[in-house]
Amino acid sequence: MTQHPALSDPEYSTPGTSRGLISGFQHRYLLSLLLKKGVITRYYGSALGWAWSYIRPLAQFFMYYVVIGILLGVSRGVEYFPVYLFSGIIMVNLFSETFRSATDSIVGNRALIQKVYLPRELFPLANVGGAIIHFAPQAVVLFLISVLNGWHFEWIQPVAFICAVLIVVLFGLGLGLFFGALNVLYRDSKNFVDLILMFATWTSPVLYPFIKVKDRAPEWIYNIYMSNPLTAAVELSHGVFWAPIASGAERPEGIFIYAAIAFGIAIFALIIGQLVFRKLEGKFAQNL
C-alpha cells in the first residue's frame, strides 16, 4: 500500500495535536482574528463604547477614595494618595480581567470549539491580549496624572513596570488556564474565581500602605505577603508612578527580591495551569 505523500511531508501534523501555549503563538493569524473579535465585540451595541475602559476604573477609584481615603482617613497618612490608590487599582484590574477572561474563554467559545479544531490555548491567549489592550488606557491616564504632579524619569521605572505587568499577566493566565479547564467540567469553578478576586484587592497594598502589614504581622507572614505576585506587582507600580512624586514615600526593602520570587510563583502557576489544561482539553468539545 502506497503512503499518501502528505503523510511524509515534514510540514504535515496530525489534526488535534498541540504544543500548548507555543501552538497559540505559532498560529498568530488565528490569534489576531480572535483578539480582534474580542476587542470589537466587547462593547458592541454600547452607546459609550470604549469609554467604559475609563469609566469603570475611575468609578472604582472614586468609591475607594471617598470611603477608604476620606471617611477612614487613610489619605492623611499617604502623600499623593490618589496616585498611590490608582497605581494599585490598575494592577488589580489587570489581574482580575486576565484571570476572569481566561477562565471564561473556553466556555464562552463553545460554538467554535464544538465545530472545528484549533489549539485551545488560542482562546485564553486572545482574551488575555484583550485585557492588556484595555489596561493600556488606564496606564496612560495614570502616567499623565503622575507627570502633572512632578514625575521624573529614571531608567529603572520602565523595567519595573514591565516586570509588574509580566508578573500579573503570567499569574492571571496560569490561574485562568487552570480554572478555565475545570470550568468546562464543573461550572461552579467560576464561584471560586469570584472568591479569589474578591480577596485580591484586600490582600495587596492597594487601599493601605504595606507598612501596616510589616508593623503588625510576624516576619514570616510579611514575607509571604510580599511574595504574593499581586503584592509585588502593586508595589512595583507604586515605585514607577507614585514614589517619584511623593517625597516621603516609604518603599519595601528588597522589593526586587520579592518581585523575583513572585515571578517564579507566576511561572509555576503558568506551568501547572498549562499541564491541567492539556490534560483536560481532549474532552472540551463533548463536555461543552
UniProtKB/TrEMBL annotation:
Keywords for the protein's UniProt record, in alphabetical order: Cell inner membrane, Cell membrane, Membrane, Transmembrane, Transmembrane helix, Transport
UniProt GO BP: lipopolysaccharide transport
InterPro entries, A to Z: ABC2_TM (IPR013525), ABC2_TM_bact-type (IPR047817)
A matching Pfam family: ABC2_membrane
Location in or out of the cell: Cell inner membrane; Cell membrane
First-listed, main subcellular location of the protein, grouped into a coarse class: membrane
Membrane topology: Multi-pass membrane protein
Chain segments annotated as transmembrane: 54-74, 81-102, 122-147, 159-186, 192-211, 223-243, 255-277
Gene Ontology CC entries for this record: plasma membrane
MF annotations from Gene Ontology: ABC-type transporter activity
UniProt keyword annotation of Oxidoreductase present: no
Domain ABC transmembrane type-2: start-end pairs: 48-280
Superkingdom field: Bacteria
Record-stated family: Belongs to the ABC-2 integral membrane protein family.
Name of this chain's protein: Transport permease protein
Organism the protein comes from: Leucobacter exalbidus
